[in-house]
């Protein structure tokens, strides 16, 4: 999968994946969305972020989650 809006540069945000070379980490954008921020609010608050950046950040997160294995504790049966 190719991500044209996600860049990784050791000189920008210590090499964390960022939106289009900006000093705006993908993790920050995903965190805003996970906290319930509406797309429109994000776009209004950060005018340099584009709707396509949000779409690609979500695709990037899904791509990473596809390969990630995390050991979870066993779930407690419901009573």
Please outline what is shown here.
With 79 residues, the protein is mainly α. The chain is built from three helices and two strands.
The CATH architecture: Orthogonal Bundle
- Helix/strand class: mainly alpha
- What best-fitting shape do the alpha-carbon axes yield? globular
As laid out across the biggest beta sheet, the strand order is: 1-2
Indicate the low-confidence ranges by residue numbers: none
Into how many domains do the coordinates divide?
A: 1
Instruction: Using the coordinates above, name the CATH class.
Output: Mainly Alpha
- What is the distance, rounded to the nearest whole angstrom, between the alpha carbons of the first and last residues? 43 Å
Q: How would you name the CATH homologous superfamily?
A: Winged helix-like DNA-binding domain superfamily/Winged helix DNA-binding domain
The number of helical elements comes to 3
- Pattern of helices and strands: EEHHH
Largest β-sheet summary: 2 strands, antiparallel
What fraction strand? 5-15%
Output the CATH topology.
Arc Repressor Mutant, subunit A
Helix content class: 40-55%
Structural features, described:
This protein is mainly alpha-helical. It has a single domain, classed as Winged helix-like DNA-binding domain superfamily/Winged helix DNA-binding domain (Arc Repressor Mutant, subunit A, Orthogonal Bundle), CATH 1.10.10. The protein is built from three helices and two strands, in the order ββααα. The protein starts with 5 loop residues before the first strand and ends in a 12-residue tail after the last helix.
């Amino acid at each position: 999968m190719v991500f044209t809006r996600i860049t990784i540069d050791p000189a920008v945000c210590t090499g964390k994946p960022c939106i289009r070379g900006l000093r705006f980490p993908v993790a920050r954008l995903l965190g805003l969305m996970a906290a319930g921020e509406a797309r429109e609010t994000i776009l209004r608050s950060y005018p340099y972020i584009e709707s396509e950046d949000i779409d690609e950040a979500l695709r990037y997160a899904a791509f990473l989650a596809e390969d990630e294995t995390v050991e979870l504790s066993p779930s407690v049966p419901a009573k």
